[in-house]
Write a structure and sequence with these properties.
InterPro entries: Lipid/polyisoprenoid-bd_YceI, TTHA0802/YceI-like_sf. Pfam families: YceI. Belongs to the UPF0312 family. By secondary structure, the protein is mainly beta. The chain has one domain: Lipocalin. The protein has one helix and eleven strands; from the N terminus they run E-E-E-E-E-E-H-E-E-E-E-E. An eight-stranded antiparallel barrel has the order 1-4-5-7-8-9-10-11. The N terminus is likely disordered.
């Protein structure tokens, strides 16, 4: 039995479904392992114009950071890292989508801690499913590696043996299910 999955994203607005989506990150810790976390609160939409051109916009609630450790989460929300009191959200607005073999690259402007930089996410489109009685859904995976220092997150705690407590490169991985709006 083959699943019915369409390959085209139809014209209109597709809202990110936070129940079936995730915003994840990982960063080196003590040079030997990784700390992983999520942002549990976010929203966004994919808009497909009449000519088929897609655009994406999304907002992440920085205060929803979750690494399964309250003390670490509080430190991440503080001025050393995200400074969530002054910068409560991060945002992404696409500027282009381009083919890359069987996948895509999603270019856009990412704003974090008041700093906006162009980023390019590797994007996989998993197709469209008719859904389960609530309308069509589309699935995507996207990822990007960012340097946290490019966004003003410069906290450094050097280790006596060399290196740092927190790595500079942060991998962001998005698992997205979007629901076609009526």
């Amino acid at each position: 039995m083959t699943a019915a999955v369409a390959t085209d994203l139809t014209t209109g607005t597709w809202a990110l479904d936070p129940v079936h989506s995730s915003v994840n990150f990982s960063v080196r810790h003590l040079m030997v392992s990784k700390v992983r976390g999520t942002f549990d609160s976010f929203e966004g939409a994919i808009t497909v114009a009449e000519d088929g051109t897609p655009s994406v916009s999304a907002t992440i609630d920085i205060n929803s950071v979750n690494t399964r450790n309250e003390q670490r989460d509080a430190h991440l929300k503080a001025a050393d890292f995200f400074d969530a009191e002054q910068f409560p959200t991060a945002s992404f607005v696409s500027t282009a989508v381009r083919a890359d073999g069987d996948d895509y690259v999603l270019d856009g402007d990412f704003t974090l801690k008041g700093v906006t930089k162009p980023v390019s996410l590797k994007l996989e489109f998993h197709g469209v499913n008719p859904g389960m009685g609530h309308g069509a859904v589309a699935g995507f995976e996207a990822s990007v590696v960012l340097n946290r220092k490019d966004f003003g997150i410069a906290f450094d705690a050097p280790l006596e043996t060399g290196g740092a407590v927190v790595g500079d490169k942060v991998t962001i991985t998005l698992e997205i299910e979007a629901l076609k709006q009526a």
